[in-house]
From TrEMBL:
GO molecular function: 2 iron, 2 sulfur cluster binding; metal ion binding
Rieske domain: residues covered: 4-100
Protein name, UniProt field: Nitrite reductase (NADH) small subunit
Assigned keywords, A-Z: 2Fe-2S, Iron, Iron-sulfur, Metal-binding
Native source species: Granulicella pectinivorans
Lineage: Bacteria, Pseudomonadati, Acidobacteriota, Terriglobia, Terriglobales
InterPro entries xrefs: Rieske_2Fe-2S, Rieske_2Fe-2S_sf
């Protein structure tokens, strides 16, 4: 059943242009801040399970630190290579908490 869980404090969220790794309920999450908007993606790249939360942002994409596959921060769809994607999780801020919805 889908539910919202805290991933970090607002103060601990990545700054604009940065990413970070978190883990909630055993799920690895890449939290990304693209121009002030937070996005949450599956942390594990479908190529060879590189940690997206250790990668970086270019444009609206999160790039994997291992071989630079690029995933749209909003949709999880890969800009490169075509046909790949990672899961994304809805994000909301409630008070001082950053929450994501997982099922
Ligand atoms: S493991 Fe992510 S691009 Fe290779």
């Amino acid at each position: 059943m889908a539910h919202w869980v805290k991933v970090c404090d607002v103060a601990g969220a990545p700054a604009s242009g940065a990413v970070m790794e978190c883990e909630v309920e055993g799920i690895g999450v890449c939290l990304a801040n693209v121009g002030g908007k937070l996005s949450a993606l599956d942390n594990w790249c479908p190529h060879r399970r590189g940690p997206l939360g250790q990668g970086w942002i270019e444009g609206n994409a999160v790039l994997c630190p291992w071989h630079s596959w690029a995933f749209d921060a909003d949709t999880g769809v890969a800009e490169y290579p075509e046909g790949e994607r990672v899961a994304v999780f809805p994000v909301q801020v409630q008070g001082d908490d950053v929450l994501i919805e997982i099922s």
